[in-house]
Amino acid sequence: MTTDTTILWGRSLRHITRSLDTIITTVITPVAMMLMFGYVFGGAIQTGSASYVNYMLPGILLITIASGIAYAALRLFTDLKSGIFERFHAMPIARSAVLWAHVLTSLAANLISLVIVVGVALLMGFRTSAGVLAWLAVTGILLLFTLALTWIALIAGLTAKTAEGGGAFSYPLIFLPFLSSAFVPTATMPGPVRWFAEHQPVTSIVNTIRALFTQAPVGTDIWTALAWCAGILVVAYAFATAAYHRKVS
């Protein structure tokens, strides 16, 4: 299975290198949001002593991932419609290798997009005292979040009727950070909205990354964030594999 996955992953990566516009398109939305919030709205939002670009970057990173996973669904949908799945299944390869190749491609593509967004944030004045271990922890959380959302994307890619439908599922995920602590403190929100913001997964992930960047205590947020990511991953993986088996049976 490992060899099969590696070969198919190489195939998917070659597709990305031949169409780098997909990565560019992925980062346009989060970079545009970062510029707008940083230079238009940032001065009106009170976040304490931290610069606003430092405050909002964790949320922007999650939006970057939510934008990028739509292409995982699109790539899978395109493979299904092209008939190449039938050719793969006629070969002596593990069936699960096809899905895992798309998952690994999503991780690689999103990692590139995240690096680009962090680079733009540095140009905007983002600064952090985080050490190597803190950066590794941030990277691990972002990759786990990407992995969880990618399996959701595969469900969409396997069940969509059109290419547009395959990518549309990502829109609610892109806007979810706006109902969290990503851009404003939850204490400024009205009651029901504040309750939702404080109990949805994005807030705990954002708070954890923000604490790691500032070398502040992460408290219980990190365990809540990991629990959310792991729970979403397990459920999405189960539904995606079930949908895949129905599709190829």
Give an overview of the whole structure.
By secondary structure, this protein is mostly helical. The chain has one domain (2-248). Helices cover 78% and strands 0% of the residues. Helix 1 (2-18) packs across helix 5 (96-123). The two termini are 19 Å apart. The mean pLDDT is 84. Keywords: Antibiotic resistance, Cell membrane, Membrane, Transmembrane, Transmembrane helix, Transport.
What tags apply to this protein structure?
about 250 residues, mainly alpha, 11 helices, globular
Strand and helix layout:
Elements: H1 2-18, H2 21-41, H3 52-82, H4 84-89, H5 96-123, H6 132-159, H7 163-168, H8 170-175, H9 191-199, H10 201-214, H11 221-248
Produce a short descriptive summary.
InterPro entries: ABC2_TM (IPR013525), ABC2_TM_bact-type (IPR047817), ABC_2_transport (IPR000412), Nod_factor_ABC_transporter (IPR051784). It contains eleven helices and no strands.
State the distance separating the first and last CA atoms: 19 Å
The H/E string reads: HHHHHHHHHHH
Q: What characterizes the major β-sheet?
A: none
Q: Compute the average pLDDT.
A: 84
Structural class: mainly alpha
Helix proportion of residues, in percent? over 70%
The overall number of domains is 1
* Share of β-strand residues: under 5%
Rg calculated over all Cα atoms: 19 Å
Gross morphology is: globular
Stretches with pLDDT under 50, minimum 5 residues: none
Number of strands: 0
Number of helices: 11
